[in-house]
Amino acid sequence: xxxxLQTHTEHFTNPLYxxxxxxxEPYDITYETYGTLNDDKSNVIVVCHALTGSHHAAxxxxxxxxxxxxxxxxxxxxxxxxxxxxxxxxxxxxxCFGSTGPMSTRHPYHDEYRYKFPVVSIKDMVKAQRILFDxxxxxxxxxIVGGSMGGMQxxxxxxxxxxxxxxxxxxxxxxxxxxxxxxxxxxxQEAILKDPDFKQGxxxxxxxxEQGLSGMAVGRMAGHISFLSHESMREKFxxxxxxxxxxxxxxxxFQVESYLEYNGANFSKWFDPLAYLYITKAINIYDLSRGxxxxxxxxxxxxxxxxxxxxxxxxxxxNFEMKEIADALANIKxxxxxxxxxxxxxxxxxxxxxxxxxxxxxxxxxxx
Length: 368
What we know:
The chain is α/β, with parallel strands linked by helices and 368 residues long. It has twelve helices and 14 strands.
């Protein structure tokens, strides 16, 4: 069976009312689908992407050598089995891969929004997706699955659209972003803002595509540290030194240093810095209990089967943060949930890398 990868963009002219009280109109949402929608539209699985992800979750475009970010998880016979399910992943609003974001054209002025773009929240991202699914005449889905910021979206769906999904699987997320994660985001934000080439938000995006933005590269290095763990770095790099560098050269490098440099520099050429600022803001202000007195009160709204998966050595969103959601569900006598802590030393990015540690579990959830 083929993956049947298709990419589309929908244009919306109705205003999107945001949590902040501001309005976004008009707006576009770019999304990708895999597999085939059945006649009664009952085989839909929604995938939500993380901070630097996009709608391109699986398969290869013609000009690509690296497949979508969850390619090992989505496809024929894989955990999200496209022989059986119709998988849909949309790019969040605020991002830079086709959905409306800070570098989109501001109607009717013909210039980019830049700082005039409103702050969007994770709840807003989910609301926009819900409107997209309405447009596609999809009103109930089999499951919603996401990791990290994608896991936050999945949890928001559970609370704010309780009858939309039968099953919700949230990986490597939290119920509210904690100071540790906000601190890492702060380093990245400051590094971007202080880079003169950022030009206070009025940079030329074409120049950055070629040259990158060194401030953003530095910020991304900090991010990468939070995605890995002490153990996985030790395993991956040890104390290996770059073969071509001398130990006593001031700028001679350890392997871990060149890895961070390479990833940071590369990243700043393909991800937009304003989008990065807006999305990290959305992550920072994320809190499932906002608008409710307590987390428990928010969770009383959950009707889907909610499956929580944490990773033992996740430094960004500690496993006990997911456990707190499970405990809160137990406190309010909910029975339609499960919690699994995956044995892993990899760190936060385990949900992207160590698929074999949880894909069978996800298959079992989907097969009931």
